[in-house]
Queue: 3 jobs
Job 1
Amino acid sequence: MAYENPSYSVPNRIPLPGLGSIVWGVDFNSKEFRPFKLNSIGALSVDAGLLRFEDGTVAIVPRLFYKIWAGQAFSASYIFEGVADDDAATALFENPSDSGKTATIIAIETVSFGQAHVRIYRNPTIAAAGTVMPTINLNMSSTNSCICSAYQGTSWSGGELAHQTVLPGGSRPRAVGDLAEIGESVVIPPGFTLIVQITNKSGAATDMSVRFIWWEE
């Protein structure tokens, strides 16, 4: 058995909550995040048993995993085939003004067989949304439908340039691709939009793809 040296200070140690303390966790019945109270013996109260799986273990998971489990996380993706040199593939993410929900984009993934430039614009003027991209709920057992929409082939102008980077491209199996992120995440309120523009800079026609990963609440 290993013993901790009392003279050794463990950095970033978080003390356990005391009796009567309030702890937060997932209610697995309502699928909501709410407070629970520790009982007189320091264990989770009866109500807080909802925090536990049937084997008695307690779930501590990243927020995205919880949103997936709750059926509130979605993914939309599309492959642009044969994009000509110096032409652009364009994708739109839209949260409708009457959605009543906020979307949190976790990542925008852009990949290209060839070199490319990636630019992301906030709230451009949309002339034509384009064609809806296939969208899935990341929980295969959930019947929840997404409120936000992703489109490809959008006609647009203006907007605030929020992100610009390059894709190194390369031939398989050495194609690098890239994950274009706007900070750690970006929150899209109702009535807001994003445009993703991938411009082919490889010198020849190439295939590209874009993927949005987000949750709604």
Note: Residues 22-60 form one domain.
Job 2
Amino acid sequence: MTPTDEPGPGPDTRKPRAELRHWSAYASVGEWFRDYRGYVPIQMAHGLDQLIRRTGMSFPDAYRALLRRGAIIHLDPSDDLEPPARTA
């Protein structure tokens, strides 16, 4: 097989970044990971899932706890900030 015969990478099936919601807007690990698959390692989803199962925390609370502990590191520090709460 020559280098030109080797298959290239498959199609990019990641959701476009512009369509990704802030982590605080998700209700579950599964919902979040469906959107962020390809952007984050599966181990991150596993760690969140385990914390939620052990403690009964909501997804945003578990994510926030791991973020504060330094177990989640965002490449863009602005992702650490939560959007202001909406008032009715």
Note: The CA atoms of residues 30 and 54 lie 17 Å apart.
Job 3
Amino acid sequence: MDIHERLFAKIIRDFMEAYALSAQIGRRLQAGDLEFSWVDRLVGESEESALFRLKEECHALFRLDDEQSDEVRAEEIFDLAVGALFHEGMKFREGYYLTTTYAPKLERMMREGGDAGPLAKAFSRVLEAGRQRMIESEAEAAELFDETRDQLLVVIRSLPASGAIARSLLEDPVRTEQVFDLPVGPLLESIYGSAASGYTAAVESLIAGGHFGEAAQLLERDEAHVVGDALRDLSRRFARGVESFYAGNLGDAVDFLADWIAGGALGAASWKDLASRALVAIETDVGEVDDALARRAHELSAALSGV
């Protein structure tokens, strides 16, 4: 996986986090129980803010040098939209802070008979303008988030099929469905041609990155049936087998890999090399203490070479 692919997958994750946070903030604002800590998580001037991270990541990945083509790319439009989201979010943050911090103090002063002269009246107008700006910014941000999401899909579909992107979309299916307003299966189909191809890309990416347990867990989800029962089960057994090997559970590793080989050793081409190296290591490591296990590993290694 190259760095561009990895960074873009992170951008997708951070966008979905920011989108979900914005929706929660909108609901809490309407309910009257919004706390500033929620706003701070969405937008601010530090890495703790989802929109700040997203803005910085997009600028780093998508911005072109002046010497490059004048053609406007889909990524650049997305980058500009994210920048606009950040600035709209900051307007909301400032309006919310002004309204919730100073308005109660002024109202208390007025109730207690404080100075109600021209300055207090002017301050009241400022606070009311801030409250109105806050409401308008929240509505603008919600609309802009939807438009930016649509542009993100344009970018995703314009790029080569990526396992890292599939992983980011499958990491939290419920959140993905909420953000894209589409079940994960049809979403993957619109990007990869079929939901099965999306799941397969994600599994292969996880295994290539050494995340064997996560790959198995993904295959064990109910919705992963789209992969096809045979390939799904064999891929899961392969992932569990290599996971068991690295965890030191050599007997389990041999059992899982035996099932995978018996089923035809289906999967990415690199999987055979991973399995072969695991079986050779098992044979070498247990040769003097567990002759039966060593012999079985040797036989499986030979069988694998003929598949």
Note: The chain is about 80% helix and 0% strand.
